[in-house]
Amino acid sequence: MELDKAAVCLSKLGNPARLAMFRLLVKAGDEGLAVGDIQKELNMPHSTLSHHISHMMTSGLLIQSREGRVLRCRLDYQLTNSLLDYLMEDCCKGLQKA
């Protein structure tokens, strides 16, 4: 992952509502959740939730699919794991002295 992509992802997660949605979808796992279920769990008006879903989709962290009349949201775990790996890739290696 490149710095710019990581910055976009983190900026989208830098909102309490979007971070709560992200954590909820982590709990839901691969199956994801219907938009209506997210709305109930987060006690958020539909228009506000739509706004936050849109932001998460532009980062690529969120994938949305239609199943009949239901819109289902899932995390892109490959991107999520890439972001986490990027953040931790130099963990505990120490600083290189010039």
How would you characterize the overall build of this protein?
This protein is an alpha+beta fold. It contains 5 helices and 3 strands. Pfam families: HTH_20. Keywords: DNA-binding, Transcription, Transcription regulation. GO terms for molecular function: DNA binding; DNA-binding transcription factor activity.
Secondary structure elements and pairings:
Layout: H1 3-13, H2 16-28, E1 33-34, H3 35-42, H4 46-59, E2 62-67, E3 70-75, H5 77-88
Antiparallel strand pairs: 1-3, 2-3
Organism: Kiloniella litopenaei
Keywords: DNA-binding, Transcription, Transcription regulation
InterPro entries: ArsR-like_HTH, HTH_ArsR_DNA-bd_dom, Metal_resp_trans_reg, WH-like_DNA-bd_sf, WH_DNA-bd_sf
Quick overview of this protein structure:
This protein has one domain (3-88): Winged helix-like DNA-binding domain superfamily/Winged helix DNA-binding domain (Arc Repressor Mutant, subunit A).
How far is the N terminus from the C terminus?
26 Å
CATH class descriptor: Mainly Alpha
Parts with pLDDT < 50 across at least 5 consecutive residues:
none
Classify the helix fraction into a percent range. 55-70%
Strand runs, count: 3
Biggest sheet, open or closed, and with what strands and sense?
A: 3 strands, antiparallel
Estimate the strand proportion: 5-15%
Question: What is the domain tally?
Answer: 1
Shape: elongated
Helix segment tally: 5
Strand order of the largest sheet: 1-3-2
